[in-house]
Structure formats: C-alpha cells, structure tokens
Amino acid sequence: MLVNNEIITELYENAGDTRYQKALEYVKDKRVTITNVNYENKNNFELAATVKGSNGTYNVYAKIEEGEIKDIKCSCPDNTQNYCTCKHILAMFIEFIDNSIYEELYANQPVKKNRKRQSLICMLMMRIAPPTKVIMNLWKKEQLDVWGSLRASVP
Question: Are residues 55 and 153 in contact, defined by beta-carbon separation less than 8 angstroms?
C-alpha cells in the first residue's frame, strides 16, 4: 500500500462518512488531478493536487513525515474555516491510493531505471496533454529517454 493505514484511518475519522462518500464521487467523476508527487515510502511523501469541487477548483497539499501528517491543507472553505479533513483532501488520497498507475510507479521503491517504468511514463505522457508536473518530475528524475521510447513503440 502506498500510504500508511494509520494515516488513512486518521483522515477518514476526521472527515466523517459524508465527506468520504463525496470524495469517492469526485474520484469516480475524474475531478482529481495529482499535480505533484515526492515519494520516498508510505511514511514519507508529499502530494499535491487540484480537485474540481462543486464551487470551484481547489488546491490540495499533504506532507507526511515519519508516518505523521506534518502539513495538510486545501484552499476550500470547509478546510480553511473548520480545520477539518475536507472531501478534497480525501479525494486526493483516494486517487493516489486507488490509481494503479501510482501503484506501478511507487509501490516497489527504490525502483531502478527500467523498461517497465519507462513504458509507464510514456503511456502517461500520451494520455495527459500537456504533461503534468508529476510526469515532468519523473522524466527529469529518471533522466529517461521518453521520446525515444515513444518513437520505438510506434509501428
């Protein structure tokens, strides 16, 4: 699992079932875009996302260190006024945990530069236009010849 279960439990308990159900809808409706991932392991990572809510698009951020939530915020009124885990924060975590692409990229850390990872990044780049910060960061970090791989995969 990409995120420590205790963190997920803490977020869910703080948010409650109503916010959780709405977060699931946001993920299902593809309203969550992960914009940045800095991942070491399930106890040390940063996530950033935008979530299209019912009254606008909100910026979401979380920093986990040593299995503890060090910083977590959303630009929505629910989070800024009530200091609670909002549906947008939950939606970002659900998208990260449930999306098989992130599981492939981060589950077996440390990952060596290999063809499988390179192919996955190529696939992401073909699906997302323009490439998100996540893809660009991976590209730079791994120093992959992504475009060469794309050319090689086209018949």
Answer: no
